[in-house]
Structures are given as structure tokens and as C-alpha cells.
């Protein structure tokens, strides 16, 4: 069941930090520190559990198992990485339903082609913006709890297409039903500020 705290913080326009967690020991530490929201990082969980790079090598089943375990161990709400949604539109709907049943509060979907790469590596390739917007629309429609289970739409287009094109992509994902927008790997603090001023919906800043 999705935790209402994330929606409540966004409604109050409250800034917050969600630590990216790589394993359940880190989750226990986050509980002791008192974090109300944590981030299940696909990269870190894959590296910790499987010793593999962030290159689309882990399956939906493996991701779901790790995120379910994180939900069971974290005292706060869990934002969970789902890479590209593990396939086409049917896969995205299946992923959303699985994550929601597991108790995740927000699911992050990105617009890279499969197999994806870490967002901070070169030569990333993105889907056409219209295809990703359709994924976001399917994700928004597939969830049962449309109030508290949130959709995060991430674009990795900054490096390959430029800032303006990346913002255009986020506009399309916003219109498709994303609750939170994510400009991955901006080049500067000024670009982060530009993105935040461009949208009324909340944005993620990945401090990797």
C-alpha cells in the first residue's frame, strides 16, 4: 500500500532528501537516522545484490524482489527505480501493478532504449518522446491508488539532445500523467534552476 507521506509533502511544496539505498543494512541505518522517504536505486541494488553494472542486466523479477524487501525493511515510504519498465506497454502496466502490490509509494520510469545505461555514462540512447509519453500514460492508468501511488518520469536526453529537447520531453511526460519529473544529469546548477522554473510539478535532483 502506497504511503501518503510523499503526496502530502508535495502538496505542501516541501523540499526533502531521500537517500538512495543499496541494501537492507543501509535501510536500517536510514531508519535510525529518521528518513521519512527513501529511494530504491536500481543501480545500487543491482550492484549490491548481483555485482553487476547498471546496464539493463537485472530482470523485473529481480527488481521486484529487492524493492519488496526494501519496503519490508524501510520505516518510511519507498520510491523505487523501475528502469525502462522492462519492455513495452504491457510490461510497463505489469511492472506498475507489481510495484504497487509490493507497497512501493512511487515508481521511476526512464526514457532510454533497452538495454539502458547508467544515467551518468556517455552514449545513452532515448526512445522517441511520443513512445515514452505513451508509457507514462499507461503507467498512470494501470495504478489502482491514483492518489498516493505516484509516477516519476525521467529523461536521459540532456546529453544527446540538449537541454531544450530534454525539457520538451518532460513537458510531454507531464501532459501524459507523470506526478514528478526528473531531468537526469544536468550539466550545471543553472540548468537545474532552469528546469525547476519551467514546470509547476515537483522535480527530482539526483545528487550522484
- Beta-strand content: 5-15%
From the helix content, strand content and strand pairing, which structural class follows?
alpha/beta
- Radius of gyration (CA) equals 16 Å
> What does the average pLDDT come to?
94
Task: Describe what this molecule looks like in 3D.
This protein is an alpha/beta fold and 208 residues long. The protein is built from 9 helices and 7 strands. The chain has helices at residues 5-11, 24-33, 42-50, 60-73, 89-102, 129-142, 158-161, 163-176, 189-198, and strands spanning 20-21, 37-40, 77-81, 106-110, 150-155, 180-183, 203-204. Strands 1-2-3-4-5-6-7 form a 7-stranded parallel sheet, with helices on both faces. Helix 4 (60-73) runs parallel beside helix 5 and helix 5 (89-102) packs parallel to helix 6 (129-142). The longest helix has 14 residues, at 60-73. The model has no long low-confidence stretch (mean pLDDT 94).
Amino acid at each position: 500500500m502506497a504511503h501518503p507521506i510523499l503526496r502530502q509533502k508535495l502538496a505542501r511544496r516541501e523540499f526533502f532528501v531521500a537517500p538512495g539505498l543499496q541494501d537492507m543494512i543501509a535501510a536500517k541505518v536510514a531508519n535510525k537516522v529518521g528518513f521519512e522517504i527513501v529511494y530504491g536505486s536500481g543501480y545500487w541494488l543491482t550492484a549490491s545484490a548481483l555485482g553487476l553494472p547498471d546496464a539493463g542486466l537485472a530482470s523485473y523479477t529481480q527488481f521486484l524482489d529487492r524493492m519488496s524487501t526494501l519496503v519490508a525493511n524501510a520505516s518510511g515510504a519507498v520510491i523505487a527505480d523501475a528502469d525502462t519498465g522492462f519492455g513495452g506497454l504491457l510490461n510497463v502496466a505489469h511492472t506498475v501493478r507489481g510495484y504497487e502490490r509490493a507497497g512501493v509509494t512511487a515508481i521511476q520510469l526512464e526514457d532510454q532504449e533497452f538495454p539502458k545505461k547508467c544515467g551518468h555514462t556517455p552514449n545513452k540512447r532515448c526512445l522517441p518522446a511520443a513512445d515514452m509519453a505513451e508509457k507514462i500514460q499507461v503507467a498512470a492508468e494501470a495504478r489502482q491508488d491514483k492518489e498516493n501511488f505516484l509516477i516519476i518520469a525521467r529523461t536521459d536526453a540532456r546529453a544527446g539532445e540538449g537541454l531544450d529537447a530534454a525539457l520538451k520531453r518532460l513537458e510531454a511526460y507531464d501532459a501524459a500523467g507523470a506526478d514528478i519529473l526528473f531531468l537526469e544529469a544536468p550539466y550545471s546548477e543553472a540548468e537545474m534552476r532552469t528546469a525547476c522554473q519551467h514546470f509547476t510539478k515537483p522535480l527530482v535532483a539526483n545528487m550522484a
